[in-house]
Sequence to fold (819 residues):
Amino acid sequence: MEQNNCHTIKCVTPLDMDFPDRLRDIPDCPNVLYIRGKLPDPKRPTVGIIGSRNASQYGLNMARHFASCLSDAGVQIISGMARGIDGVSQRTAMEAGHPTFGILGCGVDVLYPKENRDLFMRIPERGGLISEFPPGTQPVAKFFPSRNRIISGLSDILLVVEARIKSGTGITVRRALEQGRDVYAVPGRITDPLSAGCNRLIADGAGTALSPDVILEALGIYPENVPGTSLISGGVRENDKRVRLAKDEKMVYSFLDLYPKTLDELVCITDLSVQKLLPVLLQLMMKGLVAEAGKNNYYRKSQG
Amino acid sequence: MFSSIHTMSINGMAVQEIQAETDLSEGGLPVFEMVGFLGSEVRESRERIRTALKNSGFLLPPRRITVNLSPADVRKSGTSFDLAVAASLLCAMGIIDQKELEDTVIAGELSLSGEVRRVNGILPMARKARDAGYKRFIVPKDNAMEGGAVEGIEVIGLSGLKQMVDYLTGSEKVESTVFSVEERLGNRSDTADDFSSIQGQAAVRRAMEVAVSGMHNIMMIGPPGSGKSMMAKCLPSILPPLSPEECLEISEIYSVSGLLGKDGLKTERPFISPHHTASAVSLSGGGKNARPGQISLAHRGVLFLDELPEFDRQTIEILRQPLEDRKICIARANGTYTFPADFLLATALNPCKCGYYPDRNRCTCSENEVHNYLSRISRPLLDRIDICVEAREVSFAELAHADRMPEPESSESIRGRVEDAVKIQKKRFEGSNLRFNADIRPSDIRKYCAIGVKEEHFMEKAFHKLGLSARAYHRILKCARTIADLDHKDKISTDHIAEAVGYRAIDRRYWGGAE
Fold:
């Protein structure tokens, strides 16, 4: 039976020519890498996107937004294929048809976590799954900090989307700094524990990822004809001809942002009754402008 | 001498006619024997009756006394036979004329002093007695109000054995107890919990209004302290008023359970809120002599399950059949009992273990924990919940400045709209056995919830966009029907459907998923 290329496991050591140069010069370089799919293209820039597993709706949206803009500009997305930020950024890149690379804390033939089955199956088609642990290794908590050094090692820039003050993300950031990589963080509200880690990084001197353009510029990419990707809340974008909204819809939409609001909060802000508001929200959802997180929690969908 | 007196026995909710037969025979040793498949409490009644007769001034003759409760193959339980057996003895002794009691049913417990004590199940007994063509029903005085609700039978409440003899021999007159159920229902007392005491929570208010109007089952999700339980307690204040027929139905269940007070009727819809440690049998009903469970006590009212995921899974699963059939059938070794159980199920739960999901900045649960928490509720149960809504945490400012906010709408004004919607439904379902929109069966959906082409198209689009399951289809239509009724509209519009879609039940794919 002919075996598909993406299901065979390759193995490279620092003695091999195709061992990533990015990893050669980091402290405690892995002695071996097991790969399903391929290794990142050394000629193309790479960005590691990391963040909390239990991310907020804002974090998930930001991850999606950055992953989509960066991978469209030809950047290879590297991440840990965990739940939350990792998975979302890789899924975004993968679904847009761009290569993305998952660095695992277990064998490359072990599916973990189970929710990411789609990533596990499809990433090797264009990108690759990489691990320093031999095939068959089960995920154990102590393996994850060490795989973090490979994530940062393979990335030209490390982007932290959302992190608590004390988290695994912190470990990756420290390794990145040891390895001399630039670290960028997405700022958040100072009252959100999930953004506290990022805001702290910015205060400590990390780059402020105000938009994907900031990262692209740092990589020396100046994309042309990229539409303005402003996510700043407010009215509907004037130049957006794709959707036409009724008056109420415009009003409700302008009150929504990336932080989910409950139905009740919207009733208070908009002064519409529940029976008026629900149809408006459903219309907005059907137009793809608004999504629901949990039950009756509405947020503005990013139009990245 | 031989005598036979009519009495009744209760089995579950079913009433059976029983004959208390007595024979006094000469010869042999004096003895007082009771037969007829008696439970131990019925066998003990021999001593009660003997002493009660003595203390009322009637000595048992030193003869061979045999009492039989017929039919003798039905197990007798309960203490309601005492008075009938005593009457039967008195007839056999020639103190009362047997002819006096031809069209009369007697039930009641005796104390040693000869007092008549209250028993359970007088209301269904009175109904059965009337239907069987009896003219008079002698009951304990404390139960007289229960029987008085039944028209077409003379109900006599007596307080002692001596009084019964005096009454039956004509030396004392006792007025029969009678009153009109409608009149009693008219003066509705104010319940303590009123929606006017609740600030904000527009979403839950509206959802409850819709739920109550069509008797849809409702689920509230929200963080701890968002007032879910408080609002559930306000539910009874907006429930549509009871019809006399419903009032008697509920009162019968309470009568059998011995939960009716002296006023003898349950004039308000019940609100039953069992703690989450409740056992399966306490909810479903059962036991050796089957008694109605909590779900039957909630008949025509609200069964509120707070902290739904904390309930034992087995306990919750027993709700599935009653929610479908509106009654519960309990099969035990000594018989099968059917209890009515047509209730509005209201449930409240936290969205996750810590209670703050989906606010990730406060929720400390992992996606798996969130998922596991919800999966304690079974899919089939979720499928029976038409309306699902989020309760928001009330901010400090809202509580502190309540006096500066506009006065929240009172239950009375909400109830006005609910009553209108109920009237519309009553007219719609005339001639069918349905009562509320929630009762509409899938086969009748087209008949009662017909929608136009435009609405059909809209619904299709919404289903496609939101990835709704086909199961949700009927629930949304039924709910939209109720919303249209509240709107006094004959035709279901897209706005009604859209609102119903907003109340759709939580879907696991969106709950605890990666995105």
Summary: Chain B has a mean pLDDT of 89. The domain at 2-179 of chain B is CATH 3.30.230.10 (Ribosomal Protein S5; domain 2).
